[in-house]
Amino acid sequence: TSWLIRDHFFIGVTPGNFTIRFPYYLTGPEAEQYGWLEAPEEKVLEHAHSEYLEIWSDLGVIGLILWLATLIGFFRFLWWGLRSFEQPFSRWLILGIAVGVLGALFQNLISVSLRWVASAWIFWTFIGAGTGWVVGKFATQNGRSKPLPFWIVPMTFLLAMILFLPNTKRWAADWHFVRGRDLLQHGSPKAEEELQRTIELNPRFPQSYYLLAGHYYTNSRFEDAIENYKKVQQLRGNVVVLTENLATSYFKLSTTLEQEADREEALLTAIELYEGSLERHPTFPRLYDYLSRAYHRIGLERLSVEHRRKAIELYEKWFQWEFKYGRARYALDLAKNYYLEGDYESAFWQVRNAKRWGENPDSLEVMKRALFNADPSLSAKWDREEVKAIESANTTTPNE
């Protein structure tokens, strides 16, 4: 984020474009920190780690100064009211509003919740209430005994409705998206329906397309997955993990096609997308891994071996760090690469790691059978390791 601000210091990248520009700064060590996280929304809808930094990114230092000046003016206004009013109720009310607004501002030092409807409307309601109360009490204390006309209240609500009416579909889409995402996490078949409804209400909702694409991919509907990934690409640009997932969808699609020409076309498309991702994220082992598989299927063995060995090197480097997410899946992928290299011993221990780190036992069976067929002695070794693991679990105390 600091690099993006450095390059667009005064006027920023314009509102909403942080998510487009940010991924281009994910290179080298920074890519290693951010790029492993594969949660869809984080990679599709990027934000800074602070509301103030994102305002600086979007609007530049000029916009940030105007924003801070507005806040300072608001608090000066409240301070004036706090010192001027005599009634305890008015002073406590102003103090409560000030504390609420300050709490939101401090929380957004490490968040961007002022961008979300659910929390933003409370923030701006507090600011409006504080300003309105001070203005109203000031008018009363200065001899204006006649209250403001009652019709101002309904007219204010009517104006607010007119202003916000165009966004009602978007808010409804937000609601359906949250429901669809929760249903998807619980494996409900109704998740697809909710996400489709989100898109009907707001066709420019990239997160829904992304989650739908992942849902279709999981259910081997690769053509549908590709269609939705492409839609996200149109809306958000070539986010690194998006390009990788699109490439993997083409790779998986090639395994389902009957015509040789169609399979080759899908594989070539996957290779092109993987290569493009590598230019932006050259330390991601899974890119080399899948490129190796694609080259193997298309008959380019030299390139397949070259990329497989690079994948092994990067997987091993990744395991030296203290990352926990994805370890089981990456261990299994590394085992497959060692197996193809003929290093059955290393493959064996990576399968053991995958089991220890919680990989689905069913996912391990194919790899285990392949290893035991290649080296029958590994079957007995596996049994011995299982006994050791059970004994270790039985002798380990809760504190340990």
Key phrases:
mainly alpha; 20 helices; single chain; 400 residues; elongated
**From N to C, what is the helix and strand string?**
HHHHHHHHHHHHHHHHHHHH
Number of contiguous helices: 20
Give the rounded overall mean pLDDT.
83
Poorly predicted runs are 35-45
Strand content: under 5%
What does the overall shape look like?
elongated
**Strand element count:** 0
Rg calculated over all Cα atoms: 28 Å
Instruction: Give the oligomeric state.
Output: single chain
Task: Indicate the topology.
Elements: H1 2-7, H2 18-21, H3 28-34, H4 40-44, H5 51-84, H6 88-107, H7 117-141, H8 152-164, H9 168-185, H10 191-201, H11 206-218, H12 222-236, H13 240-254, H14 260-280, H15 285-298, H16 301-320, H17 327-340, H18 344-356, H19 361-374, H20 377-395
Helix pairs in contact: 5-6, 5-7, 6-7, 9-10, 10-11, 11-12, 12-13, 13-14, 14-15, 15-16, 16-17, 17-18, 18-19
Characterization of this structure:
The chain is an all-alpha fold and 400 residues long. The chain has a domain at 2-146. The protein has helices at residues 2-7, 18-21, 28-34, 40-44, 51-84, 88-107, 117-141, 152-164, 168-185, 191-201, 206-218, 222-236, 240-254, 260-280, 285-298, 301-320, 327-340, 344-356, 361-374, 377-395. Helix 9 runs antiparallel to helix 10 (191-201) and helix 17 runs antiparallel to helix 18. The radius of gyration is 28 Å and the shape is elongated. The two termini are 41 Å apart.
